[in-house]
Amino acid sequence: MGTSRRVTLNDVAAASGVSRATVSFVLNDDPHQTISAATRDRVKEAARTLGYVPHGVARALREGTSRVVVLNIDAGMEGAYSRSYIHGLDAELAAHDHVLLVRHGHHTAQSIQQVLDVIVPRAVIRFGETYLTGHALDDMGGGWRNGLAAHTALQLRHLVDRGHTRIAVALPDTESPLAATRLRFVEHAAQNLDIPTPVSFIAPHDRPASADAVNAFLSRAPEVTAIAGFNDDVALRVLTALRDLGRRVPGDTAVIGFDDNGYGEHVIPSLTTINVDGEAHGRLSARLALGLDTSGLEPPPARVVVRESA
Fold first, then answer.
1. Which residues contact 166 (CB under 8 A, 6 or more apart)?
2. Against a cut of 0.85, is the pTM above it?
3. Cα separation values, 190 from 10, 73, 127, 152, 185, Å
């Protein structure tokens, strides 16, 4: 395979016919140097033509940090919201001349330190940190105002407003860092809505196993008339299981999803769900990470996407 050598300041200097120092002054827009407009234009044109990119380590040493923001996403935290959040975070950082690096999976203190040592990032964000460190009800992190607690309550309230008081929560069969937090929010929301605390069960990914699990659960809890999915993936499993069991949705059992992954509108009956504007949260996080003004970036409230299943 062929390799390409990194374009250096010396290359730009040779192409534009000036000294390396002059190239550095021009590209760093040094205000203390008097360089003619023609020379500046020639240097910038040579840099563009050659594809010169400033050396990140050198700039990090000069500025104290690199222009990189690192986002760590723990396993089990991915979904429609996280993708939207990343889109907003990336766009806002790019608007302020920063680059986003997303790390998925399990993050140890050692692996994080390695990143810090190599990149010297401007900031490190842990996706969902508020909910993973015991501060889930702090308004700054969302909580009941515009965070996961409020979104969970909205999901439950939609069912209660339609006459359901005996509700169950369907959980994924894979470990999620947010499962315990969501169930705690469900319990709080049920107390506020004056209904019994919803019971929970696991909805496996395998279709026959999911039908067996739903059937077994409803046999034990025949009073349940509505099921709230941990997310849309789980809700779609439940929806399919109920149809396989010959149960009418929503006639026998209502189903509501969470996180609006885009597939709910393509099934029969279509899936009612909760939509959260992750992009707005991502843009807000970018501004906070860079220490910029956040006015005008108040995230809109979550909303119910009303379809047929509930």
1. 195, 196, 221, 223, 224, 225, 226
2. no
3. 67, 29, 27, 10, 9
